[in-house]
Amino acid sequence: MRKWAVAAIAVLLLLSGCSNKKAVKEPVQKLKEVTKVEKKGEMKNQYPYYFPLSGKGSQTNTDGRAIAVMINNHPLARPQSGLNKADIIYEILAEGDITRFLAVFQSEKPTNIGPVRSARKYYMELAKGLDALLIHHGESPEAQEMLEQGYINDLDGMVYDGTLFQRASFRKAPHNSYITYGNILKGVKLKKYSMDQTPAAFAFMSEEDSKKITGKEAGSVMISYTSSHISDSTFEFDPTLSKYKRFSSGGEQTIDLETKEPILIDNIFIVEAVHKIVDSGGHRSIDLESGGRGYLLQMGKVNEVEWKNENGRIVPVKNGKVVPFVQGKTWVNVVPTNPGLGKSVSFNVKK
């Protein structure tokens, strides 16, 4: 009887062990399935932070105020310094036939920036729409009045010439005013400005969606601002890089002065706005409020869009909805409604 009892207990223990193994095996399989799902989710959201003006992801916090710098585009000011680090560059006519750039930096900090030139009302409006700190060397009478009324935080080379702003010996005034990012921070401290105003984010598509962009083939586009063609520019799409390269009139490629790196762009946004000459000095009034026609070039394709002013920012829209940018750098060209997009812009299919 004792032998039979021991045998019975052994059988019961064996059956119990088998049952437990089956019970454990099924939850392990389910756990593996959950783990796979979590990994897929991590791939879709690789970064905890995103830069508001470029859409690029980051492992570290992306908060911080944008800096908008007035950059000289006279032929004697080329090549410029720092443009390769800008998230957005606005190109607009100043006086005469020469355009100027408003280069906006937030995700990257250039060492040296310039040549710096004077501000105008419409450039200031764009900087204000991004809550940016404005860097300039002088201003028009209208812009001066706005600054005196506290329209925007700024650092002016007319005030800090030779201190925060330095004159380069290899160029002649007014094409030789430069400022370092370090000196900008010194000016911020001096003026007790806050650098906490992170700009509102533009709409950006995912990298997967950017590969599915449709539209008309546009391997290159030429933009002509005036009949003199001195400020003409051409953007050519490089399919190996999936980015645009920029060339000034005469075929000179836009590069960084110090590093010789080419300016590479992901979005070319061309908008049409009303321009008016307002005084004997040739200063212009440009309507950046009313919206109008535009073109958006991305990944070698072009689409006709509209543009609107959304809280001070120029954004592309189609069928009433904002069109997202490709993640990366954006160049915005503002051309006059007269002669308009039809005569100012021409496309070519890059073979």
TrEMBL record:
<keyword id="KW-0732">Signal</keyword>
<feature type="domain" description="DUF3048">
    <location>
        <begin position="229"/>
        <end position="332"/>
    </location>
</feature>
<dbReference type="Pfam" id="PF17479">
    <property type="entry name" value="DUF3048_C"/>
</dbReference>
<dbReference type="InterPro" id="IPR023158">
    <property type="entry name" value="YerB-like_sf"/>
</dbReference>
<feature type="signal peptide">
    <location>
        <begin position="1"/>
        <end position="23"/>
    </location>
</feature>
<dbReference type="Pfam" id="PF11258">
    <property type="entry name" value="DUF3048"/>
</dbReference>
<protein>
    <submittedName>
        <fullName>DUF3048 domain-containing protein</fullName>
    </submittedName>
</protein>
<feature type="domain" description="DUF3048">
    <location>
        <begin position="58"/>
        <end position="193"/>
    </location>
</feature>
<dbReference type="InterPro" id="IPR035328">
    <property type="entry name" value="DUF3048_C"/>
</dbReference>
<dbReference type="InterPro" id="IPR021416">
    <property type="entry name" value="DUF3048_N"/>
</dbReference>
